Amino acid sequence: MFKYPAGNLYILRLCNQIQMKEVEILLTKQVQDHETPSAQYLIFNQNKVIDRFTTGLAQIENDVEANESTTYNAFSVTKTFTALAVLQLAEQHKIDLQAPVINYLAGFPYSSKISIIQLLSHTSGIPNPIPLSWIHLPAEHPQFDSSNFFARVFSKNRKLKSLPGRKFAYSNLGYVFLGRLIEKASGLSYEEFIVRNIITRLDLKPSELSFRIHDPAKHAKGYHKIVSLSYAVLGFLIDKTRYFDKQEGPWKSFKNYYVNGASLAA
Questions:
Q1: For strand 251-254 and strand 244-248, is the pairing parallel, antiparallel, or unpaired?
Q2: Cys-Cys with 78: which of 157, 213, 264, 266 at CB 3.0–4.6 Å?
Q3: Total Cβ atoms within 10 A of residue 85
């Protein structure tokens, strides 16, 4: 273990403060230049909050400023919860990280040589089709059938991009299977396992972290800049009339929606 003299530790802290101030300036400029409606971050360890920053509007039309109680979609940050859940199950000896996925999921449609650790590390070779259309509206959520949806996705993307273990290639589909593995090994739904074994143990309220939007008034709206190439391209991937709401300044707002696979994004 390295030990730093007190003076060196002070210098390190000062450098970190300067770096974070630069980050704050950059994010503030992003909001001012209409590159994003709002930005927020929180840096913490297991004992305390080290730094926090919030700027911009959570809802442009109603002039709602983002603050500490504003909630955001986690999107792919959810994969960290999925990975942690898999490691918990491995610690409980309910799964073997080195074992083939097919040992636990009989209907696994890819190579029988793909292991759980390869799914975790994105080295399975499983393809990664564009996931932007993998969403549904809140009214559809109670009846949404994730198994049927992904069965169609798997059938269109059968061919591996590389041999298992050969190279890193990000794959959302790999984390769909990890979600199913969690359900198979635990006997719980993915959401229930995460709530019981991670969120509850962090002493967080549903209004702070959840798989549901509990208070739309405190939830940051999703936005996309109208005058942009990506907005034009988006029309080929999703139904704009279905998922977009009204124009708010230079932005088009999204209606609230859920991602089709909770284990990869929520």
A1: antiparallel
A2: 266
A3: 23
Assess whether 222 and 242 both reside in one domain. yes
Same domain, 185 and 129: yes
String of DSSP letters for the chain: -----HHHHHHHHHHHHHHHHHHHHHHHHHHHTTS-SEEEEEEE-SS-EEEEEEEEEEETTTTEE--TT-B---GGGHHHHHHHHHHHHHHTTSS-TTSBGGGT-TT--S-TT-BHHHHHTT-S-------TT-EE-GGGGGG--HHHHHHHHHHH--S-SS-TTS-----HHHHHHHHHHHHHHHSS-HHHHHIIIIIGGGT--TTTS-SS---GGGBPPPEEESSSHHHHHHTTTS-HHHHEEEEETTEEEEPP-EES-TTT--
- Say whether both 141 and 52 belong to one domain: no
The pTM for the full model equals: 0.87
Residues 20 and 103 in one domain: no
Question: Is the domain of 64 the same as that of 176?
Answer: no
* Residue pair 124/164 in contact by the 8 Å Cβ criterion: yes
Domain count within the chain: 2
One domain, residues 157 and 185: yes
Structural domain harbouring 17? 1-70
